[in-house]
Amino acid sequence: MSFYRGFEMDRKEVERNVNTFKQSMEVDDKIILRAKIAVIEEIGNKDEQKKRLDQFLSIKKLEPFACELLALTAHRAEQLDIRNKFLKMIQNPRKRLGLVLQMQDEPYALELIKGEREKDAILALCSQFLLFGIKNENIRITISKILQENKA
């Protein structure tokens, strides 16, 4: 038996052990994904954080919770372009705005509202923004104008 074949057998055995562990400990893929995302936050090097976040961007279909966690992680890592890409993956506009408000990025939150097309959605997002509390006076005035324009 060649060294390579021995390695293949060992790898298969390791995979089998991992699967057994997952089943016995009831570890699902979501837990593993959360752990991988948590590791990014622990890395002190910004370039390494950016590289790992970019790897997640290449995944075609991410779970909604993963998009939220990755957006928050990218925000903390000061990778705003990557953060915005993860935010765009979140389908629910209210959830997206809530995350941006949690990040205290009022200018981007205003952009999200301005980008919305449906009148009801605009009003709902403005209400959510007002309930959260607006710190910037210019943004407060702009939100008031948007509300006036979209009154029923």
TrEMBL record:
PANTHER family registered for this protein in UniProt: VACUOLAR PROTEIN SORTING VPS16, VACUOLAR PROTEIN SORTING-ASSOCIATED PROTEIN 16 HOMOLOG
Record's protein name: Uncharacterized protein
InterPro entries registered for this protein in UniProt: VPS16
GO biological process: intracellular protein transport; vacuole organization
Domain of life: Eukaryota
